[in-house]
Automatic annotation (TrEMBL):
InterPro entries: ACP_syn_III_C, ACP_syn_III_N, FabH, Thiolase-like. Residues 108-186 form the Beta-ketoacyl-[acyl-carrier-protein] synthase III N-terminal domain. Keywords: Acyltransferase, Cytoplasm, Fatty acid biosynthesis, Fatty acid metabolism, Lipid biosynthesis, Lipid metabolism, Membrane, Multifunctional enzyme, Transferase, Transmembrane, Transmembrane helix. It comes from Staphylococcus auricularis. Its EC number is 2.3.1.180. Belongs to the thiolase-like superfamily. FabH family. This is Beta-ketoacyl-[acyl-carrier-protein] synthase III. SUPFAM superfamilies: Thiolase-like (SSF53901).
């Protein structure tokens, strides 16, 4: 019999320390007005020095467990999307597996930068639909503050820390997942990078080793030029139009950029969910955080159609069109 996958619970966690736009005025040559008008960001959350991605992932899962009284004892896979893992190995997912004492669970981290969470959801859907797994935790979590250069005004004002988690389960009917699209424009990878072992790709123009370096304008141009096409490709597969979608949930990178994308795609501002005003760009965590905020505000209802669109470093992208089943 065919297996399907269904989202049954969601949770989140953000660190308690708040960094406002005014805090940046003390650190670099910027202003609240510049940041608000150019990005839409007002605040972001920052982890303590000894607080890492695994810590906030774990707290997001505990939040999910508590809110939905979710039984996690039979989780058989953990997928943690992040570009800021505590270690190269062990993975963040292994840490969660150990902390929750999930004896029968696999554990993997994936890195698709800001597209990581939607990639994670699509992988979870594939694993459950093919019968390999039955209950999967998908987490998007980042501590970008640890790889942010706080002397570079063009990047430091953007990034924040946070985590979101979904529980995806086997179901015989009423699946969440309708269709998806994924891809990558790897030729444009130099627009957004953080070096580690190899520096080959950057020849002699390497900047700021170990910190995020971004050609903001390059990414902006790419996103406004390509994301509307990616949205159409996804909806075409399901024979739907943007007006059929209840909630559009793009990666929260920049409000102005999202407004341009929405305008090109005929998506109303009122149907767009963002988390950047409160939390900044938290890469793989922005999409589950946007959904969490909207759930708290009781915006999303069971049966609503949601289009999630992740894009960023790579430049990689991944969409998923889902029917909300919580
Ligand atoms: N405060 C004041 N002035 C600033 C600041 C700042 N914080 N940062 C840059 N400026 C200045 C620049 O120096 C420049 O000055 P100049 O004209 O004298 O040279 C001017 O503002 C314009 O700079 P731009 O970089 O062209 O500004 P832009 O309007 O493009 O905004 C931004 C920059 C916010 C970074 C924007 O390009 C952006 O958000 N890009 C997309 C980011 C994104 O989507 N990233 C992908 C996901 S992230 C991930 O995957 C981890």
């Amino acid at each position: 019999m065919k297996s399907y996958a269904k989202i049954t619970a969601q949770g989140s966690y953000v660190p308690t320390k708040v960094m406002t736009n005014h805090d940046f005025e003390e650190m670099v040559d910027t202003s609240d007005d510049w940041i608000t008008t150019r990005t839409g960001i007002k605040e972001r959350r920052i982890t303590e020095d000894n607080e890492y991605t695994s810590d906030i992932s774990y707290k997001a899962v505990l939040n999910l467990k508590e809110k939905y009284n979710a039984d996690l004892t039979d989780v058989d896979m953990i997928i943690n999307a992040t570009l800021t893992p505590d270690y190269k190995t062990p993975s963040v997912a292994s840490y969660i597996q150990s902390k929750l004492n999930l004896k029968n669970s696999g554990a993997i981290d994936i890195n698709a930068a800001c597209a990581g969470f939607t990639y994670g959801l699509n992988i979870a859907n594939g694993l459950i639909s093919s019968g390999q797994n039955k209950k999967i935790l998908v987490i998007g979590s980042e501590t970008l503050s640890k790889i942010t250069d706080y002397t570079d005004r063009s990047t430091c004002i953007l990034f924040g820390d946070g985590a979101g988690a979904f529980l995806v389960e086997y179901t015989k009917n009423n699946p969440s997942f309708i269709t998806s699209t994924s891809g990558s424009d790897g030729d444009k990878g130099q627009n957004l990078y953080c070096t580690e072992l190899s520096k080959e790709m950057f020849n002699n123009h390497l900047e700021n080793e170990g910190y995020i370096v971004q050609n903001g304008r390059g990414v902006y141009k790419w996103a406004v030029g390509n994301v509307p096409r990616i949205i159409n490709e996804t909806l075409d597969k399901a024979n739907l139009k943007t007006t059929d979608v209840d909630w559009f949930v793009p990666h929260s990178a920049n409000a102005r950029m999202i407004e341009s994308i929405c305008e090109k795609s005929n998506i109303a501002k009122e149907q767009t969910l963002m988390s950047l005003q409160n939390f900044g760009n938290t890469s793989s965590a922005t999409i589950p955080l946007s959904i969490d905020l909207a759930m708290n505000e009781k915006k999303i209802k069971t049966g609503d159609l949601l289009l999630l669109v992740g894009f960023g470093g790579g430049l990689a992208y991944s969409t998923t069109l889902i029917r909300w089943t919580i």
